[in-house]
Amino acid sequence: xxxxxxxxxxxxxxxxxxxxxxxxxxxxxxxxxxxxxxxxxxxxxxxxxxxxxxxxxxxxxxxxxxxxxxxxxxxxxxxxxxxxxxxxxxxxxxxxxxxxxxxxxxxxxxxxxxxxxxxxxxxxxxxxxxxxxxxxxxxxxxxxxxxxxxxxxxxxxxxxxxxxxxxxxxxxxxxxxxxxxxxxxxxxxxxxxxxxxxxxxxxxxxxxxxxxxxxxxxxxxxxxxxxxxxxxxxxxxxxxxxxx
Length: 244
Fold this sequence. Notes:
Layout: E1 5-8, E2 14-17, E3 31-38, E4 46-50, E5 57-61, H1 68-71, E6 73-77, E7 83-89, E8 98-102, E9 113-117, E10 128-132, E11 137-144, E12 149-157, E13 163-175, E14 189-194, H2 200-220, H3 224-243
Antiparallel strand pairs: 1-2, 3-4, 3-14, 4-5, 6-7, 7-8, 8-9, 9-10, 10-11, 11-12, 12-13, 13-14
């Protein structure tokens, strides 16, 4: 793959890591983004990613409401609002499968990569598998996104080109600590730590899907009565918005 770099795998071997979305999102040095959950209308439904050194926004995700149709498609944008990646939930799927498309998805376009749970059983620490089509890259996400403590591992290939064996950590999601107060911040603000040559746009896209999978798990834990109350509150909010 053009523009690949190498990292040290957990098994001691070298693993090639390169661009998935584009070379412009890869850095030769380690990089960190501060990610904040935000939204224009519904708190917690969107994202903004910043460079902590400059304070400049790098990526954003805007949401304009709730509901099944809106929840089944996500768009990762750059600062001006151009689409970088579009994500679509694949139905039916017991593995909570999502497909990622380059740019603004068009009819008949093939997905760039697929993200899914490794097991149909959810849970806070269930592994997530990522397959990049075409180049054949495979990734595994382990840990707890809900607790903002997980990492992305790239699966390398053996000498004969076969998969398996060697993995290298290419990104980590960690809790954010206030540098002045030395206090761990809430889960709405966290760090996305990237190894050299790992695609930042691809990493941010994985954050969006992990957030949706985590949200699905939380909704599975809500009782039917509580779910009716939440849906009723959303309906009243929509009605008030129409009357205003």
